[in-house]
C-alpha cells in the first residue's frame, strides 16, 4: 500500500492511502458544482478522489502494481476533453512533484515523509495587474468567497471523513466480521499494530473457510490463525527466550494474557513486554503475570480438599502430577474429572496436572467400565488413568 499527500491548493496537507490498481484524482475548479453532480458516486468509490485545483483541470491517474514494489508506481495526466491519457511516467518516491499545477508526493505507507516533503512550500503564483475598480473587485470577492469557502469546507470534510473512515481499523474489523458472519465457525477479528487484520478460528476447517473468504474479497491485508496453534507458537517462542510459560490465554486475542512460572524483575518484565508486543501485534492489552508451581500445587490440593479428596504429588514427564489418595465413588470421580478439565482450561497442562487413581469396587468386582487402554493396572486391585482426565 502507498500514500499520497497533497502539497498545494485548498486540499494541501490531505493524505490518502492508495490500494493496488488505478486511483484517479479528479482536479476541478468548481467544487460545489462537481460535488453536487458526482458527490454521491464518489462517496461510495474507493479509487476516485475529487481535488480542488487552482490551475489546470483534468485527471491524474496513479497506477500502483500488485507487486507492491515502489518502482511499480506510475502516474499519467489526462486533460479534460482528451480521449486518452498521456503516457505513464515513473513516480519519484517521497519527493515533491508537480502535475497540472498541483504539487503532491507519493511514498510507501510505512515510510516516513522526507524532509523535502514536510518542509515543502508551494511557489507564489505571479499576480497580474487588474485595471478594474477596487470596489468592483471587492464586490465580486464578496459574492463568491463565502459560497466557495463553504463548498470547499464541506467537500474537504466529506472526503477527509470518507477517506479516513474507510481506513479506520475498527471499520475494517467490522467489514471483515460482517463478511464472516455467515461462516460455519466462530471467529474473532482483531486489527494489529502492523496494519494487519488477524482472524482467529477455532479449528482447521473454520480457518480454511475464512482464508477463502479473505481471498475472494481481495481487499484486506488479513492473516488467519488457529487459536490453539497460535497459543502453542507463542509458548514455544517464550521457551526460546529462556522463559517458562504456564499458559497463554488467547480467548480474547486483543487482551492476551501470558502467565509465567517465574515472576520476572521489573526491567526483565518491560523487556519481555516489548518483545512480546512485536511477536503478538494483535494484543493491544497484553498482560504478563506469574505464578509458581508451588502456588499451583497448593491451590489444587486446597480446592480438592473441599471435595473431600486428599492428594499426593508425583513428577510425571517433567511436570507435577497431583492425584488422589482415597477411593473415589461415582459422584466424587465425576467432580474430580470436572475439576481436572476446569483446571487445565485455566492453567494449562505444562507445569501441573490433575489425575485420578481408581480402585476396584470390592463388592461388585471391577465395576469401572471404560474403553480399552484408558485404565492401567498399578497393582492388585488398584487402577489409575494412563492419561490426564479430560
From TrEMBL:
InterPro entries tied to this protein: T3SS_PrgH/EprH-like
Keyword Transmembrane listed: yes
Any Pfam family hit: PrgH
Gene3D superfamilies (UniProt xref): 2.60.200.20, 3.30.70.1780
Transmembrane intervals: 144-166
Protein transport listed as a keyword: no
Keywords: Membrane, Plasmid, Transmembrane, Transmembrane helix
Example of a GO cellular component annotation carried by this entry: membrane
Name the record gives this protein: PrgH/EprH family type III secretion apparatus protein
Organism: Stenotrophomonas maltophilia (Pseudomonas maltophilia)
Amino acid at each position: 500500500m502507498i500514500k499520497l499527500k497533497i502539497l498545494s491548493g485548498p486540499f494541501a496537507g490531505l493524505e490518502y492511502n492508495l490500494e493496488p490498481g488505478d486511483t484517479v484524482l479528479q482536479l476541478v475548479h468548481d467544487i460545489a458544482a462537481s460535488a453536487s453532480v458526482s458527490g454521491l458516486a464518489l462517496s461510495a468509490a474507493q479509487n476516485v478522489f475529487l481535488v480542488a485545483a487552482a490551475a489546470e483541470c483534468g485527471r491524474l491517474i496513479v497506477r500502483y502494481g500488485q507487486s507492491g514494489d515502489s518502482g511499480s508506481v506510475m502516474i499519467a495526466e489526462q486533460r479534460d476533453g482528451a480521449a486518452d491519457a498521456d503516457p505513464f511516467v515513473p513516480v519519484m518516491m517521497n519527493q515533491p512533484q508537480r502535475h497540472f499545477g498541483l504539487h503532491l508526493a507519493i511514498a510507501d505507507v510505512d515510510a516516513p515523509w522526507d524532509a523535502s516533503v514536510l518542509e515543502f512550500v508551494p511557489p507564489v503564483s505571479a499576480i497580474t495587474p487588474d485595471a478594474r475598480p477596487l470596489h468592483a473587485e471587492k464586490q465580486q470577492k464578496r459574492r463568491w468567497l463565502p459560497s466557495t469557502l463553504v463548498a470547499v469546507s464541506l467537500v474537504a470534510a466529506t472526503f477527509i471523513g470518507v477517506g479516513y473512515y474507510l481506513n479506520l481499523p475498527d471499520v475494517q474489523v467490522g467489514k471483515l466480521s460482517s463478511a464472516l458472519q455467515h461462516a460455519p465457525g466462530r471467529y474473532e477479528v482483531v486489527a494489529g499494530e502492523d496494519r494487519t487484520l488477524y482472524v482467529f478460528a477455532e479449528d482447521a476447517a473454520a480457518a480454511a473457510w475464512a482464508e477463502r473468504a479473505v481471498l475472494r474479497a481481495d481487499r484486506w491485508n488479513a492473516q488467519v490463525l488457529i487459536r490453539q496453534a497460535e497459543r502453542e507458537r507463542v509458548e514455544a517462542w517464550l521457551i526460546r527466550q529462556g522463559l517458562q510459560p504456564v499458559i497463554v490465554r488467547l480467548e480474547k486475542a486483543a487482551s492476551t494474557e501470558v502467565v509465567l512460572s517465574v515472576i520476572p524483575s521489573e526491567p526483565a518484565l518491560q523487556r519481555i513486554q516489548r518483545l512480546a508486543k512485536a511477536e503478538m501485534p494483535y494484543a493491544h492489552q497484553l498482560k504478563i503475570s506469574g505464578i509458581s508451581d508451588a502456588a499451583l500445587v497448593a491451590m489444587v490440593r486446597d480446592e480438592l480438599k473441599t471435595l473431600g479428596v486428599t492428594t499426593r504429588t508425583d513428577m510425571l514427564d517433567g511436570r507435577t502430577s497431583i492425584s488422589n489418595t482415597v477411593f473415589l465413588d461415582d459422584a466424587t470421580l465425576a467432580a474430580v474429572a470436572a475439576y481436572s478439565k476446569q483446571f487445565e482450561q485455566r492453567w494449562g497442562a505444562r507445569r501441573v496436572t490433575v489425575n485420578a487413581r481408581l480402585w476396584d469396587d470390592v463388592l461388585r468386582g471391577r465395576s469401572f467400565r471404560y474403553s480399552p487402554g484408558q485404565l492401567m493396572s498399578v497393582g492388585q486391585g488398584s487402577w489409575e488413568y494412563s492419561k490426564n482426565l479430560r
